[in-house]
Specification:
By secondary structure, this protein is an alpha/beta fold. 23% of the residues lie in helices and 26% in strands.
Length: 215
Amino acid sequence: MKKIAIIGTIGALIAAGAVWWTIGAAGTSTLSTQNATRAETSFGDLTTDALCYAAKCTVGMVAAVAFKPGTIPTDNPTAQQIASLLQTPDEKWAVSKLTGAQIRAALERSLSRVPLPNSAFLQISGLKVKYDPQAPRNRRITSLQTNTGPLRADKEYQVVMPLFLAKGGSGYFQIFDKDDIVRQGNVGLAAVIKKFVDSKDELNYTGQGRITVGR
C-alpha cells in the first residue's frame, strides 16, 4: 500500500521563520493546497515534483492560480481527487530554457506580496529559497540554492511549468514568455501527478522546507 507522509502545521511560518514545515494538522494524512497563494504546500510540492519527473527536468514551478482550495487523502489518491485540486486538470506542461537571473526574478515576483495572498505565488521543485518578508520588493531573497549548489545567474536551466505559466501567464511575461519554450508535453497535469504517485512505493512529504523565511 502506498503511503504519503505529511506532518506538522503551517502555524506562524511567515512570522516565525520556521525552516521545516508543511501543510496540515499534526498526525493527519492529507495533501492540501491551503495557503498556496503565500506559502509552500504539500500538494504544490507533489505537483512540481511530478512535472519534473514527467519532463525529466531538475527545476519546476507552478503558480498558485493553477490550484483549487482543498484537501485530499494521501493514501492512493484517485485521478478524480487529484483533479479536484487543479483549476485545469487537462492543462499540458512546457519546458522553458531560463537563466538563473530569470529564475531569481520570477521568485522575487512570487514573494513580492507576502504575507498577502498572491495568485502568482510559485510552488517549486529543485530549488530552496530563503527570504526576508520585511525586505523591499525585488530584494527579499537571501539564499537561492539548486539541488547541486547555488543558482548561477548566467547559467541556463530547463524549467518545467504548466503551459499557461510558461507563456508568461500570471504577469510573468515581464520575465519569460512563449519564446523561451523549448519543448512541450502532451499529457495533462492531473494525469502527470497520478502517474508520478503510482510510480512510487512511498512518497514522503514531511515538510521539505523549499520556501522558508531566513536571513
